[in-house]
Amino acid sequence: MDLPPGSDFPSVAHQAQWFSDEVHAHDSRLRSYLRGSFPAVRDVEDVIQESYLRVWKAAASQRIRSAKSFLFTVARRLAIDHVRHGRISPIESVGHLAALSVIEDKSDLIADVGRRERLDLLAEAISELPTRCREVFIVYKIRGVSRKAAAAQLRLSEKTVEVHTARAMRHCEAFFRRKGVKGLFDHESR
């Protein structure tokens, strides 16, 4: 059954069958993908359930050509959001508020906060890149793999790695300009 739920189905039973056959059938592969690709996601089950809900809602209003592809795309985006949210506002339990140090002893606290904010902006800029461009940029520029090794690892030509990297750099520079940041590093932001 390759039709999504919606007006094409005569009953809810057919919608449920479609969901079972075309979406839920990928449960174990989706779980493995999320655990392997996003180890920082604390609750993979929440991401999976939210993905199912979004696929069900989307299929009720539009035709979905590839349920598997759509499901994995939704789950990937949700996982990225969970990771991003975890970096922005980690939840830590504290026994007594009086035990917290309110005044930081570091003299360069402001510089550290500024660097952290710029790195968060870089992560946000990178997350906006198209998937393949983001992969190339992370492997080549962030992880520091040589162009030749990155090309081999990603099964691309060195020229393609260069093109994706240039596109990513232009995007990040434009993103920083829109946010009013002059540079990623301290000496560039002055």
Short description:
This protein is mainly α and 190 residues long. Helices cover 65% and strands 0% of the residues.
Per CATH, the architecture of the largest domain is: Orthogonal Bundle
Shape descriptor: globular
| Sequence of secondary-structure elements | HHHHHHHH
Mean pLDDT: 77
The total tally of domains equals 2
According to CATH, the fold-level topology of the largest domain is: Arc Repressor Mutant, subunit A
Major β-sheet, in short?
none
State the helix count: 8
Radius of gyration: 22 Å
Structural class, by secondary structure, is mainly alpha
* Corresponding CATH superfamily of the largest domain: Winged helix-like DNA-binding domain superfamily/Winged helix DNA-binding domain
Total number of strands: 0
Q: Report the CATH C-level class of the largest domain.
A: Mainly Alpha
Write up what this structure looks like:
- It is a single chain.
- With 190 residues, the chain is an all-alpha fold.
- It folds into two domains: 12-88, no CATH class; 110-188, Orthogonal Bundle (Arc Repressor Mutant, subunit A), CATH 1.10.10.10.
- Helix content is 65%, strand content 0%.
- It has helices at 12-23, 27-37, 44-61, 67-88, 109-127, 131-142, 147-154, 158-179.
- The longest helix is centred in the middle third of the chain and has 22 residues, at 67-88.
- The chain starts with 11 loop residues before the first helix and ends in an 11-residue tail after the last helix.
- Residues 1-7 and 186-190 have low confidence and may be disordered.
Write the layout of secondary structure elements.
Elements: H1 12-23, H2 27-37, H3 44-61, H4 67-88, H5 109-127, H6 131-142, H7 147-154, H8 158-179
